């Protein structure tokens, strides 16, 4: 399931993030790549554990906790501390699959059920740089507005097209979901949206709304790891 979380960051948060990134020291992005990805990866990245990365990572985590759309889509158990990358002209990331397990700088281990990219650059500020995700129904090309995030299965083959003008800034991170199976998460996400529609049209006390809500939570009880 691929979905969007719109307006995760406010204009003020975006401005703060860009200011911190403009003053930050960057390193070769291959420092955090696995053996396969290191051959395909051409970008810059904030060093893990750097002061700038920790500050902006906390800003992103706080915003995600407030964003109901992200919570509904990801059903997060744990979120890997966000990382930040930059693609300048000529940089890209060839087709790859993310590692199934990621270790944070403090040694904590995360299963990567879901991959997320939070766009920090306005699409008009750079050419190229699309996130291309391969799925059962073909490729999906993503170049979202600044402040928006895309959420998709980390098991997907994906790539970043080469940037041909400007710089593409983004936060990227992974989610260990309470519901590890993507098909089950998709079912729950669709049911959650249908419940919201039914509540708006029928009211919270309607018997159908009560029944749908109960079904949603009972499925969570059956499938969730907590």
CA(first)-CA(last) distance: 22 Å
**Rg, please?**
18 Å
Number of helical elements: 6
Average pLDDT metric: 95
Beta percentage is 25-35%
What is the helical fraction, as a range of percent? 25-40%
**What global shape is seen?**
globular
Unreliable stretches covering 5 or more consecutive residues: none
The tally of beta strands, per DSSP, is 17
**Can you summarize the main beta sheet?**
8 strands, antiparallel
Order of helices and strands: EHEHEEHHEEEEEEEEEEEEEHH
Give an overview in words.
The structure is a single chain. By secondary structure, the chain is of the alpha+beta class. The chain contains six helices and 17 strands. The strands form four sheets. Strands 1, 2, 4, 5, 6, 10, 14 and 17 form an eight-stranded antiparallel sheet that branches. The protein has a five-stranded antiparallel sheet with strand order 3-7-15-12-13. It has a two-stranded antiparallel sheet with strand order 8-9. The model has no long low-confidence stretch (mean pLDDT 95).
Task: Looking at this protein, list some descriptive labels.
single chain; 226 residues; alpha+beta; 8-stranded antiparallel β-sheet; 5-stranded antiparallel β-sheet; globular
């Amino acid at each position: 399931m691929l979905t969007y979380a719109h307006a995760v960051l406010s204009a003020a948060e975006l401005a703060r993030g860009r200011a911190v990134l403009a003053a930050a020291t960057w390193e070769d992005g291959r420092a955090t790549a696995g053996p396969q990805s290191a051959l395909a990866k051409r970008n810059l990245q904030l060093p893990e554990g750097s002061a700038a990365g920790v500050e902006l990572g906390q800003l992103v985590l706080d915003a995600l906790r407030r964003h109901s759309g992200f919570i509904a889509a990801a059903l997060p158990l744990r979120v890997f501390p966000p990382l930040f990358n930059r693609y300048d002209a000529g940089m890209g990331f060839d087709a790859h699959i993310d590692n199934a397990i990621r270790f944070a700088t403090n040694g904590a281990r995360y299963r990567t059920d879901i991959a997320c990219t939070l766009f920090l650059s306005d699409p008009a500020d750079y050419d190229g740089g699309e996130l291309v995700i391969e799925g059962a129904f073909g490729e999906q090309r993503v170049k979202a507005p600044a402040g928006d995030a895309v959420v998709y299965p980390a098991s997907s083959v994906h790539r970043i097209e080469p940037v041909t003008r400007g710089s593409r800034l983004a936060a990227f991170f992974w989610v260990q979901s309470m519901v590890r199976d993507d098909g089950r998460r998709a079912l729950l996400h669709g049911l959650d949206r249908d419940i919201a529609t039914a509540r708006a049209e029928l009211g919270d006390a309607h018997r159908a709304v009560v029944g749908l809500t109960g079904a949603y939570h009972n499925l969570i009880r059956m499938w969730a790891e907590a």
